[in-house]
Amino acid sequence: MSLTDRDLKVIWHPYTQMKTAAPPVPIVRGKGALLFDEHGNQYIDAVSSWWVNIHGHAHPYIAQKVSEQLHKLEHVIFAGFTHEGAIELAERLLKILPDNQQKVFYSDNGSTAVEVAIKMCLQYWHNKGEKRTKIIAFKNAYHGDTFGAMAVSGRSAFTAAFDQLLFEVEFIDLPDAANSSNLKSLISHLKAEAACFIFEPLVQGAGGMLMYEAGYLDELMMHCRNEGVLMIADEVFTGFGRTGKRFACNHVTEQPDIMCFSKGLTGGTMALGLTTCTQQIFDAFLSDDRLKTLFHGHSFTANPVACAAALASLDLFLQSATTENIEKITGMHRQFGEKIKDHPKVKTTRQTGTIFAMEWETGSDTSYFNSLRDTLYTYFLNAGIILRPLGNTLYILPPYCITNDQLTYIYAKIEQALNEI
User: Fold this and answer.
1) Which of 4, 82, 99, 379 is most buried as measured by Cβ atoms within 10 A of its Cβ?
2) Crossing angle, helix 404-420 and helix 320-340, to 10 degrees?
3) Is 61 assigned a catalytic role?
4) pLDDT at position 78 over 90
5) pLDDT digits over 179-217, tens only?
6) Active-site residue 234, yes or no?
């Protein structure tokens, strides 16, 4: 029995309508930007396996460090105990994050990193004796699929079954020249009851790779700082080089109170999440009163093997070769965008760093459920490329190790699709 047949008997896949979806592709190994199925077919992973892989598949250096760790310590409870990997990872990350980030709280994925951040903000005000429970977020946001993360995400078909159970959030537009003043006024109006403002800096990933300018975000953040509104930067997607700088918050001068990370944190090797915060946030939980404790944790918090993978990934990330690859991808994306922007089937193109997106003109509004998605997905899969369109929005988000030839092939196939579909 093939892997596909075995899968269909027992597996329920994420974001998949199991009745109508095509059978899953059985992947047996990976190397660099390539994945290989059980029949020996190869695919360029142009979406970094849901945005997590930054150095390439089965990277030998990360594998070596993970193997070494498995022979020393696979896990230890992180309440009352600690280990070298968790300490070193926190120390090294804090050195390259904005200066105001002082403490690291570990979790196990992006959604839970966001959950921790939300709870930190809500309990911060509770511990200070102030009733601030309203959260401000951007429309079309996506922060995860657990309930708190889902609540601060934009209302959509994904949340429809749960909308009545989600807590109230004040959703605002992405900032631009036309609405900046109004957004600031709204935040001022809400400041007495606002626990925090949470945002995806510069790029809303699942919302359709929607992008906005750093300058307007900086203005909004400065206003929040002046009004005493705590800020959470969700860098689960944008962190570790995706926007062209180490972190998206490096594009702005004002800095958040809390930051969330996962995805590229371990180079795509395994699940790990973490939330960083300022000393001010941390100090609000320091008390002789045990009820002011942050009551949150996960069985696999700060897993030593995951920390080893993250440390190895960080070694690779900080190499000059990785910076050069990020700059190369950014430049190649820019040239490709210029080349196709006037094609009649290209509604719009946009780019931030290594993230390139284009909206395919279909004669109707852009939508996650646009039927063109399945056509494009299959077309590129047959060409040996994994591209997972968000409806009629096609995006490229490759591992940094992708070669010039591989990127050029992806661009050529997109141009071919524009002329054939």
Assistant:
1) 379
2) 20
3) no
4) yes
5) 999 999 999 999 999 999 999 999 999 999 999 999 999
6) yes
